[in-house]
TrEMBL record:
GO molecular function: DNA-binding transcription factor activity; transcription cis-regulatory region binding
Keyword Calcium (UniProt): no
One of the Pfam families matching this protein, by short name: TetR_N
Regions recorded as binding DNA: 36-55
Protein name: DNA-binding transcriptional regulator, AcrR family
Keyword DNA-binding among record annotations: yes
Entries under Gene3D superfamilies matching the protein: Tetracycline Repressor, domain 2
Domain HTH tetR-type: 13-73
PROSITE patterns cross-referenced by the UniProt entry: HTH_TETR_2 (PS50977)
């Protein structure tokens, strides 16, 4: 990997975006173990204090990567939902497609980030927030098709299925199409069971 060049004056937001992009590149090229704040500073062409100001610690950097991934996934889902018919099957297709495609886009990097964050308070907090947001989004999206509110256990089972089939697709155990189809079927079955 090469240094990004001479130092440039960027806004705080633009610098954060640059650092996140360089961090993902380090993970892709060298693995998660190589991702340190000092290595990130070197390859981004900034001083260490700049990187520490944005992330404070390696765990903070990894947490920021997880949040960036989650925001990207939510944006993709929201964009697709705006154009989908307000019917059960099209909404289930959008959720399944967006979830699986986002995981596959990030490939093997996201599991490495999660593994590096394992056991940290940052990861537990982020995962709880992500799960709660995703479950509430699905509850609201599918409420019009349910005779009674979706059960929390059913929504958690759907999230578990999403994580499971996307992991299997990343590992090559199933195809992307199989993962999407299965997740869509799980979502539809969950909703129909509440009728």
């Amino acid at each position: 990997m090469t240094v990004t060049g001479t130092r440039q004056r960027l806004t705080r937001e633009a610098r954060f975006t640059q650092l996140v992009a360089v961090a993902w590149q380090i993970i892709r090229d060298e693995g998660t173990e190589a991702l340190t704040l000092s290595h990130l500073a070197e390859l981004a062409g900034v001083t260490k204090p700049v990187v520490y100001d944005h992330f404070t610690s390696r765990s903070g950097l990894l947490a920021a990567l997880y949040r960036e991934y989650d925001q990207r996934q939510n944006q993709k889902m929201d964009d697709a939902l705006r154009t989908a018919k307000a019917e059960l099957a099209p909404r289930a297709t959008v959720i399944a497609t967006a979830y699986i495609e986002c995981v596959l886009l990030q490939g093997r990097e996201m599991p490495s980030v999660l593994a590096a964050l394992a056991g940290t308070p940052e990861l537990e907090k982020i995962r709880r927030e992500y799960a709660a947001d995703f479950i509430e989004k699905c509850r609201a999206l599918f409420a019009p098709f349910c005779a009674q509110p979706l059960r929390d256990a059913a929504l958690w089972a759907m999230l578990g299925a999403a994580e499971g089939v996307s992991w299997a697709a990343v590992q090559g155990a199933i195809t992307e199409a199989q993962a999407k189809d299965e997740l869509e079927a799980v979502i539809i079955a969950m909703v129909q069971a509440s009728v």
